[in-house]
Input
Amino acid sequence: MWHPHNPWKSTKYFGCLPLFRGMMAWILLVTMLTGCWDQREIEERTSIVALAIDEDPTGYKISVQVPNPIKIFGAGGGGGGGGGEEAVEMLIGRGETLMEAMNDIQNQTNQEIFLGHTRLVLIGEKVAKKGIWPLIDGFRRHPAIRRRLWPLVVKGEAQSVLQVKTRLEQIPTVFIMDMVDSGVRDGSMADMTLGRLYKALYDPAVDPYLNYIQAEKDTVRWLGLALFKKDKMVGTLNTQESAILLQARESKSGDPVSVSCPDRKGEIVFQPDRVKTKYQINKTNNNVRIQVRMRVDGKITEKTCPIDLSQNGTIEKMEKSLGGWYERMGNSVLRKIQKDLKTDVIGLGNKIYAFHPTIWKSLHWKKQYPNAHIDLKYQVQIRRIGLDKK
Amino acid sequence: MAGNRNKEEIRSINPHQARAILTATMVGVGVLTLPRSVAIPLKTGGVWAVLVAGVLNAVPIYLITVLGRMFPGQTLVQYISQVVGFKNRPGLSKMISFLFVLPLGLFLLLSISIVTRYFAEVVKTAVLINTPIEVTMITLLFTAAVVASNHLGVIARLSELLLLILYMPGLLLIFAGIQEGSIENLMPLFSFSGRELVQGVLASSYSFQGYIVALIFMGYYQQPKKSLRPHMISISVVTLGYAVTVLVTLATLGSFEAIRIMWPTLEVFKLTEFPGDIFERIESAVLAVWVVAVFTTVKNLYGAVVDIMMRYANCRERFRPWISFAVVPIAYLLGMWPNNVFDVFRFSDIIGSYGLILSFAIPILLLLIAWLRRLGSRREQMQT
Output
């Protein structure tokens, strides 16, 4: 039987439905599947780029930094405000918990606050010392909060960092973010993102540490690392000491080191490039012995004494004295971390857990860590001396 | 020439599509929680559970394939009355076969609803915070119903098409693993007891469920005799994909963190960062792809359910859309049954274990009966 083709009744186009109804169904689906409930234009949001958390009589005082698109150079017509005008706004909320304080901020602004662009979480020293568990929970539950933002501990009040007027960047947050990024890239700062902080908090065999900064007049200075014992900050390491910890934990090179020349007439500056760490763990009658062997490769970037580096044996001498310096430094850091603060920021427990599960099961690491016998050995190798042969 | 076209449709699924159907049905919503469910009993050794579960689930797939090969051109609902029924008592045969068909249909229906609800729950908490879950669920179900209004051959072709999209998140995952992963988080690889391994294997088996639809789809294969290889390839691919998922998740998050997170796999995507900030917050894009993964699962299960009903009631082909849309409210209501996300997890575990039992029980029982009654083509039995 041959029928004239009737497109309106044909089910050729939309499977089981005739043309008109099929079209309606598709239109319905397309409109419903676009998620219009959650559609928000970018100008309908108050994007928070940095959070600063401080103590307050009520609980927490949260200051947030919001970039002001009108005032930023090159954004839209009219030219930036520039001349003394702020490119960022600061809003302050107070509350017993993090989310309450956020809600308090929400009550002061015209648009919905949005945390998806948050790049910095600044924690005031006092808050860090009291413990950060209460904060972490709110962050973890929030879907917009990323894991790749920088939590930083601030010396003094965290809010002070948001008040810094950086000259090189209009938005201070971007400045600090870039600073930490490049610091991590060249191996002098800790690569401690929020995600890794979570990991270290939940892992029984590791303790976390965070970058420690301080606000200055028109910039921010990296002071070193803030060490935590689980969620409470217990101490700090300065920049030189931090290098040791970063070498051991992250195999990062750390800051340059200067030692005095053999003839005591000047200094030699050594820039570490690559660090290799080897761990040897064994257990003898209830005491753990850990040998940490570090090999640091690097170059000499400066020398202010008239020693000839090309002579036989000079480089070896240098390497020895550098190794000695590292070992002294390393041992003092170890004492501080292990004996005074009793926090396992190096992650030795994790090494045992991962590579010696039988030893781990026979230990009570938290109790035994302060008494564990840890050996640090450094071997420095000078690979290059720059463009000057002598 | 409508009549002719229908005849072609009857057995149109080629081996590639057979592979696509099984793969697409298995890979679904379970992947989002798989790392967590294996990390709970096994800590860092989660991968082994997945690998063992892959081998374990290959057994029912093999049995299903053997059973389907015996009755080429027939779905389970058609040949079951031959296996368990009697030639001269069609009424009684229908009654007995109902005992097999009902649990299967029920499992598929429950799976559809729980998968839909599960997915809606993920979307609600992670991306579309203000969108009601009812909307997400109904749109997904309706779309699946539109697809299931078609012949199973059409559904198979769609699976083949959409399977390509499924591989994209896999590449992203590997990328994330290279970026953020560390071997230390994966060690120790062997520090679990046998009992923990069994728990992990069972837990990860739930993520493999869905291949049971082959009982229905095999009736439409062009060459059921050649279907063993694609089926085995599909289970291997899925096992490998799951293993990579678990490995990467544990390597990036660590086992202690993976246990605590609601959807660990999603969290891994949150960690990925593209150089130069081309894409920020890639997890929404991944979830958009994930819609496809879930949708392929739902539509295949859906098509199977509709086909079971059609065959059992001897419906004419033109009633397929009606039956298909009639299932939507039932699936929706079942999906709204759990009260909260923990209930959803619990339900999906129960349904997963039910599916595992069913996947073993139906083919084993039917094969046994068929073997005792010397059914199927003789040559088939010689070959197996």
Remarks:
- DSSP finds 18 helices and no strands in chain B.
- Residues 90-126 of chain B form the longest helix (37 residues).
